[in-house]
Design goal:
The complex is a heterotrimer of chains A (448), B (101) and C (682). Chain A is α/β, with parallel strands linked by helices. In chain A, 24% of the residues lie in helices and 27% in strands. Chain A folds into two domains: 203 residues, FAD/NAD(P)-binding domain, CATH 3.50.50.60; 160 residues, FAD/NAD(P)-binding domain. Classes of the chains: A alpha/beta (448), B mainly alpha (101), C alpha/beta (682). Bound molecules: flavin-adenine dinucleotide (2 copies) and iron/sulfur cluster (SF4) (2 copies).
């Protein structure tokens, strides 16, 4: 196995909005940065969203330029389809071993023309569309992917070789093997983001089996201009729904699931989706069942009030159960808190679970970067060092440090970059004072 | 690729890989077979004109969610087009064959 | 201008590439982009015309680059979203392909067309064509330009010495950039100093704050001025000239007889540190252990009676002095913080009943009361407390009365819910017998570990009562004979909207955040508040700490309600931005500045008179064909390209580079022609 070696000032793990912003903030200061992303394209969850609250900017319009900026920033070495295997302390810095997974495509030759994708006979469920749409076994992951290169899913390939014949530049290479990369770095920034609560987490809500009970991310894809159906249709039969209902806190603030925290974004994305839906389906009734609406960010409360004024129904109620009638319509059993707790049944065409955010990556098997009780990366002092981890030289940003929205992710990215820069500077100038204080803080709390 | 593989080498490589990945290839081939037979049925049913998903599902006797997925997959690669709406459902049709020039 | 000549190739063959973006449907759902493409393709000088789902994507940009490299495109016109969003992106792409980035012109066909002409596809398409056509007209006249490069001062000014300002200062200084920190009051620490233990760490606020203050004071690259304010600013990013007014403290150093000095002062004023629950003297400290530890004279309230000077003549100087300090900085961080909302007279009984106080007052009351004895307020034991949320926040027009400026506080202050519940836990711990009623609309304990306080409050038997905005709670005096002086009446939506009455000894209003009054400062810095009166960022999603004035950065609650963690994070993010801007010692400005044609200029000077900016344009002696004469000369770094001089010049000698009169005329002509053509065809 060939081993490539690179030496950088900072290694950023995760290419979502947090990782991209962290990498840019450091690279723009002149640092050499490597960005490792496990998927075939950077962009994270944000690139799959429809529009963003509260500005209603189209998400791909504001994410793609960031992705492109990362790709073109000379100080950033972008490593996609790559995973970190081990981390070793190296003085005050680190040696990181990562594996480039085989794409079965020569990155230098591939032009992203997608001729191979067009001839591939195998249609698969498209992970980018949360499995609602379809994609071929060899494909550009999505239309605005960076890098704009194809990747072959060897586990779902019949190895017919049609793609190889179709490729005009002979870029497809079935002999590719995993490639090891050694990254020597002064600092590491974890921006590994989040996953949403699995649909089957709440057994009461159909256990993930009901076709017309979807989650917030599914709805993002249905609403996106590049979405799987081209319209908002329900998955059971392609019907345009007339009545859509949201279940808030589906997987958050729920001791039975061990998730006691609030996921912070689900109230706002539900309100946003409700607004977009009332634009896309002007006649549809949209109901949001909630316990508290948490529209706390800048401009968010105003956004919520606008939604109310648009006629979106907010009902304070606990959804106890969702089952399905003979037409696959979800039937809600709701305890109506506003009405003194009476229990009623409501039938809708489509149910959306406002699922919460769970940590996506546990670093502990690779290196002892401790997690907090909520599963997100632990920080020594919530108030003063939200972007530090318990290990000096390792920092964290974005949803890896707890649920947060895009603007908060960008803020924490800036703050992580600031802390990392001070650390790198102190190491390279041999100056102790600034970072030693950070390190002190980290050590202190480790003992506490 | 520094040294280009010849056609023969490529065939050989694929053949070896097919052995190595025998299980997943078999699984995918089964999936493909199902996909192809469903598509044949769909295409046959749709010859009669534009149809909605439930209409197609009834005609081919497949679950409507599966039909929807096939339609979406075919639409993505221009094998089916959307032609207007019938109440709450969209209608889909096979693309009009362009005359070969 | 010798430089310009070598950029310019005379008689160059103009080859335009036209690119119309679908914007993922945002444009193409309304505008027939393919028609735009077809029509523009046939126009003079156009060599390629293309569309793409998303031109700003890597693939879209690569396509443009390829056209420049392979098809010799040397002018680029892109029809897409607003230029504010992606002009930089496309300039980058054009430059990468080896073309001068200013040979590209951006036409906004989303904000200016597809988003505003929803119902009318045909007219929107026609408009897009007309707009693109005028863009093409300009593109034919585009000249290469060079951005203005300036050296940047590696020095930043931080305004505000609260936790956000302090943290920004420290983080910036750690990037090898000098910092000047200006605090208006005599003491550092801001509002955080007034808190006791804080969520979510439950650590004593002042302990952590003092640690930070000490680090800031010790840092060799940070200079601190208290009792100081920014009085003026000129210049531009990388090179701002700031005048700071520093008022004398009146006390030279820590006094050994501090207590006696304070006691000697006859003036008693409301003590803002304790939100008016106590009084203080005119020579004072905010609290024991504050920074700097030297006493200060409150010049507004000091009567200059001289009593304190009699006690200690060497350390006190009652002559108020003011000094102007000039600093030259590359960037400014605004961290001027917030003030708690002050309820109106009569709002929930505030001002009418002495037993109605605010949350910040309650926090001070608990601190002053001391622990492990009965909770007393104005001589009475407190047994029942009513807490009302969202006071001065989440106001709905039509339901709530507007503020003095006619606006309602329609935002959520986001800190008050958790702060209130955190306090109930404190109360329960020290005063186990007190009953607490929490009257709320929604509980917003959103942050990491915040939900814990909600849970604890429920376990602590805080009773929750939920109101709806339209039927909010009201506070009345109790009928005679009641034990408690006040009663809260409200509908409770946790019990089917029942009318309930809660008799209480004390009502605590969870007041929201308001920005500190900094109108003067915003005028000096030329930055703007948003609708909610807090300072406005350039882009609320993508560029949360930058303002519309480049080089002026926001940190902390000056921008909106935030807790400590959020203020500190924002402060670090601001430091990162400052470091990005100044770290390289150089900044780049756009070249859209005035440019004088010395052959046409006759030195009459109208331009100098109309220019609203300092040192941007002046008459200077220049030598033309061996003759010395006066001509207008522009200092590009000071010119903002407003165009005032262009309109004033009687000789048409001035143009804004990149936006010349000739270019404007060609664009207007093209639009007029387009309209005419449409009329004819109709
Ligand atoms: C349904 C929904 C709607 C939303 N809508 C909005 C909205 O409208 N506005 C808003 O502000 N926010 C919204 N959000 C929140 C927003 O998605 C997040 O704030 C944001 O995506 C967080 O970015 P991140 O970079 O921290 O994490 P992610 O986007 O999760 O990115 C993490 C990246 O790291 C990669 N990664 C993970 N582990 C590894 C590893 N071990 N090695 C290498 N790479 C790794 C992942 O593949 C991923 O690319 C929404 C969230 C949801 C669920
Ligand atoms: C009742 C209450 C309880 C709270 N409890 C908690 C808690 O438990 N946990 C938590 O995390 N957060 C809490 N907070 C929030 C916390 O107080 C703020 O997040 C924090 O103080 C904000 O810091 P700042 O630096 O942005 O602003 P400030 O603390 O307001 O500092 C701003 C500074 O700028 C100075 N200034 C203003 N104008 C000028 C000018 N023109 N020139 C120079 N200087 C100027 C001011 O004098 C001040 O020193 C609470 C807030 C309140 C109201
Ligand atoms: S943001 Fe809203 S829906 Fe999400 S967990 Fe918090 S309260 Fe529940
Ligand atoms: S944080 Fe709570 S009390 Fe404060 S304004 Fe928001 S909802 Fe109201």
């Amino acid at each position: 196995m060939a081993t490539n070696k690179i030496k950088v000032d900072a290694l950023v793990v995760g290419g979502g909005i947090s990782g991209m912003q962290t990498a840019l903030d450091l690279a723009d200061q002149g640092y050499q940065v490597a960005l490792v992303e496990k998927e075939a394209s950077i962009g994270g969850k944000m690139i799959a969203l429809s529009k963003v609250f509260p500005t209603l900017d189209c998400c791909s319009c504001i994410t793609t330029p960031k992705m492109s900026a990362v790709a073109h920033q000379e100080n950033i070495t972008l490593l996609t389809y790559c995973e970190v295997d081990h981390i070793k302390q190296n003085g005050k810095g680190f040696i990181v071993g990562a594996t480039n997974k085989p794409r079965y495509v020569d990155m230098d030759l591939c032009t992203g023309c997608r001729q191979c994708e067009y001839v591939c006979p195998v249609d698969l469920k498209n992970p980018f569309d949360n499995n609602l749409g379809a994609i071929r076994a060899i494909r550009v992951p999505f239309s605005t992917a960076v890098p704009q290169k194809v990747v072959l899913d060897i586990d779902n390939c019949i190895l017919c070789g049609k793609c190889q014949t179709a490729c005009a530049v002979d870029a497809i290479d079935f002999t590719q093997q995993p490639e090891e990369i050694m990254i020597e770095t002064d600092s590491i920034l974890l921006a590994t983001g989040f996953e949403v609560t699995p649909k089957d987490a709440k057994k009461e809500y159909g256990n993930g089996k009901l076709l017309n009970v979807i989650d917030g991310l599914d709805m993002e894809r249905l609403l996106a201009p590049t979405g799987p159906y081209g319209h908002v249709l329900r998955p059971s039969d392609g019907k345009e729904p007339d009545s859509i209902a949201y279940v808030q806190c589906a997987g958050s603030r729920d001791e039975t699931l061990g998730v006691e925290y609030c996921s912070r974004v689900c109230c706002m994305y539900a309100i946003k989706q409700a607004m977009l839906l009332s634009g896309a389906l002007p006649l549809a009734d949209i109901t949001i069942y909630y316990m508290d609406i948490r529209a706390f960010g800048k401009g968010y409360e105003q956004f919520y009030q606008n939604a109310k004024a648009m006629g979106i129904q907010f009902i304070k109620g606990k959804v106890a159960k969702i089952k399905e009638d003979e037409n696959q319509n979800p039937v809600f059993r709701v305890e109506m808190v506003d009405e003194g707790g009476s229990v009623v049944e409501h039938t809708h065409d489509l149910a959306v679970l406002s699922v919460g955010m769970l940590p996506s990556f546990d670093p502990t098997p690779i290196f002892n970067v401790p997690n907090d009780t909520d599963g997100f990366i632990m920080t020594p002092d919530q108030n003063f060092s939200a972007s530090l981890t318990m290990i000096p030289g390792i920092f964290a940003a974005g949803a890896a440090t707890g649920p947060m929205d895009i603007v908060d992710s960008i803020m924490t990215a800036g703050s992580a970059a600031s802390a990392a820069s001070a650390y790198i500077k102190s190491q390279q100038n041999g100056k102790e004072e600034s970072s030693s204080k950070i390190a002190d803080l980290q050590k202190e709390s480790q003992h506490a | 690729m520094s040294d280009k593989q010849t056609k023969k080498e490529k065939m050989q490589i694929l053949k070896e890989l097919r052995e190595q990945y025998a299980d997943s290839v078999a699984k995918t081939q089964a999936h493909l077979k199902e996909q192809q037979s469903a598509r044949r049925l769909l295409k046959k049913a749709m010859k009669t004109g534009p149809m909605t998903v439930p209409e197609i599902a009834e005609a081919v006797n497949l679950p409507s969610d599966e039909v929807l997925w096939h339609i979406v997959a075919m639409k993505k690669y221009d094998l089916v087009t959307e032609v207007g709406q019938d109440g709450e459902y969209y209608k889909y049709a096979l693309p009009v064959k362009e005359k070969k020039s | 201008m010798p430089e310009k000549k070598d950029l310019q190739k005379d008689n160059e063959d103009i080859r335009i590439g036209v690119y119309t973006c679908y914007c993922g449907g945002n444009i193409s759902d309304i505008v027939d982009c393919e028609k735009v493409r077809e029509l523009t393709e046939t126009l003079p000088n156009v060599v390629v015309s293309r569309t793409d789902m998303s031109m700003c994507s890597d693939a879209g940009q690569a396509m443009i680059e390829e056209d420049i490299r392979k098809h010799g495109v040397n002018r680029v016109v892109i029809g897409a979203c607003a230029p504010s969003l992606h002009e930089q992106t496309f300039r980058g792409a054009v430059a990468r392909a080896g073309l001068n980035p200013f040979l590209y012109y951006h036409v906004g066909i989303r904000e200016q067309d597809s988003w505003v002409h929803h119902g009318n596809h045909e007219a929107a398409t026609e408009k897009a064509i007309v707009l693109m056509n005028s863009g093409l007209a300009k593109a034919r006249l585009l000249k290469p330009l060079k951005p203005i490069k300036l050296t940047a001062q590696k020095h930043a000014l931080v305004i505000g010495g609260g936790v956000a300002g302090l943290r920004s200062a420290w983080d910036i200084a750690n990037q090898d950039i000098k910092v000047t920190l200006v605090e208006k009051s005599p003491f550092l620490g801001g509002r955080m100093a007034q808190l006791e233990t804080v969520f979510p760490t439950n650590k004593p606020a002042r302990d952590s704050l003092h640690e930070l203050i000490e680090k800031v004071i010790d840092h060799p690259s940070i200079t601190i001025h208290t009792q100081a304010e920014v009085k003026s600013m000129s210049g531009y990013i990388g090179d701002f000239n700031i005048k700071i007014e520093q008022i004398s403290r009146g006390v030279s150093s820590e006094l050994a007889d501090q207590e006696a000095v304070i006691d000697s002062c006859p003036v008693e004023v409301s003590d803002e540190f304790n939100y008016g629950l106590k009084t203080r003297k005119a020579i004072y400290q905010a609290y024991p252990g504050n920074f700097p530890s030297t006493l200060a004279i409150d010049w507004e309230n000091c009567t200059l009676c001289g009593k304190c000077e009699k006690v200690n003549s060497s350390g006190i100087d009652l002559k108020k002095k003011s000094e102007i300090i000039d600093v030259n900085v590359g960037a400014v961080v605004v961290a001027t913080g917030f003030k708690p909302y002050e309820p109106r007279q009569g709002e929930y009984g505030y001002g009418d009943f002495k037993e109605v106080i605010t949350l910040p007052q309650m926090i001070r009351l608990l601190a002053l009361n001391g622990k492990d004895k009965a909770l007393m307020f104005k001589g009475r034991t407190v047994r029942n407390i009513g807490l009302i949320h969202c006071v001065g926040s989440r106001h709905v027009p039509g339901i709530h009365e507007p503020q003095e400026d006619g606006k309602v506080n329609d935002y959520c202050s986001r800190v008050c819910c958790t702060a209130t519940l955190h306090m109930t836990n404190d109360i329960r711990q020290h005063y186990p017998d007190v009953n607490m009623y929490d009257v709320y609309e929604d509980i917003r304990t959103y942050g990491r570990n915040h939900e814990e306080y909600y849970k604890q409050a429920s376990e602590n038997l805080v009773r929750f009562v939920r109101f709806q905005a339209a039927e909010g709670p009201q506070v009345f005096a109790s009928e005679n004979g009641n034990d408690q002086p006040l009663v809260i009446k409200t509908k409770d939506y946790l019990t089917a909207g029942l009318d309930i009455e809660i008799p209480v000894d004390l009502v605590v209003l969870s007041v929201g955040f308001m920005p500190n009054p900094i109108e003067e400062l915003t005028k000096i810095l030329k930055i703007n508040p948003g609708n909610d009166r807090f300072l406005q960022e350039v882009h609320p999603k993508l560029r949360p700490v930058e303002t519309a004035v480049s080089g002026i950065i926001l940190a902390g609650t000056a921008q909106g309600p935030m807790n400590i963690q959020e203020s500190v994070t924002a402060a670090s993010a601001a430091a990162s931005k400052v470091s990005v801007l100044l770290g390289q010692g150089q900044v780049e400005l756009e070249p859209f500045v005035a440019d004088v044609d010395h052959d046409k200029c006759n030195g009459s000077g109208e331009c100098v008179q109309v220019c609203p900016y300092e040192d941007a344009i002046s008459l200077e002696e220049v030598t033309i064909n061996g003759k010395v004469c006066k001509r207008a000369v522009v200092i590009p770094a000071n010119c903002v390209g407003c165009g005032s001089c262009v309109s004033a010049c009687p000789n048409r000698a001035i143009d804004i580079q990149g936006w010349t009169l000739g270019q404007y005329e060609s664009m207007v002509d093209a639009i007029a022609e387009g309209m005419l053509a449409l009329e004819v065809s109709a």
